[in-house]
Write a structure and sequence with these properties.
heterodimer; A: alpha/beta; 6-stranded mixed sheet; 6 helices; B: alpha+beta; Heat Shock Protein 90; 6-stranded antiparallel sheet; 6 strands; globular
């Protein structure tokens, strides 16, 4: 599934380029706990999270995130946007909860990331 | 005098976890202590949640340049990052040395205390002593040490209350065939 489709399904606000929206997303993972997210070492994944501190970017350095989807209306700070740009990491933000967002994407066939 | 001797001979609690198939090779490394091709050193500051992870990113980037496969890179990065977070969140600061060899990496973390009260308990998934500040940032799931263990081919932890904690892990760049053993 393309990131663009994900953004549409989640009625998301975009914090990345048009080109980045064309990125193919094979799987997803959702959590607000860093150690939980660090379980994703098997394959690059998209992350749904409510965490918006700079550690999210660090996480992406470690486990090669494809994109970050902020849930519950959380939005990245200018500092975070800059850090993400440096790393070519697309970010989008949805008002939906983690549960609803995950359900919508799962229903459309986006599978869970292998852990 | 007898008392002080008893204290001296009291061994520091240790924890070892080695994946099947790696016992012989890790034993050999411990006995022979080969010189690493490259050694990288970093300081880790107490409660510095902005910088924590820097050493792990650097080491991952370095191994990437050597052509190590992406999944192994992620395993090294995650184990190292969890260990960095542990030093940041639970100690008075410490240091890490990454010893890089042609076919494996050894990372050694040492902090300046205050030590782990009960290693077996610290290894239990879900057990955490993280404070409110750490939890607000998404740390404190109690999965740090279990995550390190999961991603390593070998892991050593030693600590005692009031003393420093040492964590060493070994990760090979190639998967071993367990079936052949």
């Amino acid at each position: 599934m393309k990131l663009r489709k994900i953004a549409e399904l989640l009625q998301a606000e975009i914090f990345c380029t048009e080109e980045q929206l064309e990125r193919e997303v094979p799987c997803a993972f959702g959590s607000d706990l860093i150690s939980d997210i660090l379980m994703c070492t098997k394959e690059p994944t998209v992350l749904l999270t409510g965490l918006t501190n700079p550690q999210v970017i660090r996480l992406s350095d470690m486990i090669d995130l494809i994109a970050v989807i902020f849930v519950r209306g959380k939005k990245p700070s200018p500092e975070l946007i800059e850090m993400a740009e440096e790393r070519d990491l697309p970010m989008i933000s949805t008002a939906f909860t983690l549960y609803k967002s995950s359900g919508l994407l799962y229903n459309e066939g986006l599978r869970s990331c292998k852990i | 005098m007898k008392g002080s001797e008893a204290v001296k001979s009291k061994s520091i609690p240790e924890y070892w976890a080695i994946k099947p198939g790696f016992e012989e090779e890790i034993k050999k490394i411990i006995n022979e202590r080969p010189e690493p091709e490259i050694s990288l050193d970093y300081e880790i500051a107490e409660n510095d949640y902005v910088k924590t992870g820097k050493a792990s990113s650097d080491v991952k980037f370095f191994l990437k340049k050597l052509g190590v496969n992406p999944e192994v890179l992620r395993r090294v990065a995650v184990a190292s990052y969890e260990a960095e977070i542990n030093v940041t969140a639970h100690s008075k600061g410490g240091k890490v040395t990454a010893n890089i060899y042609s076919d494996y990496i050894i990372m050694m973390f040492e902090d300046y205390g205050p030590g782990i009260a009960d290693i077996e308990q610290a290894m239990q998934p879900g057990f955490s002593t993280a404070n409110e500040l750490a939890r607000e940032m998404g740390f404190g799931a109690g999965l740090g040490l279990p995550n390190i263990k999961k991603n390593c081919d070998g892991m050593y932890l030693s600590s005692e209350p009031g003393g420093s904690t040492t964590l060493i892990f070994f990760i090979y760049y190639e998967e071993k065939s367990y079936a052949a053993k």
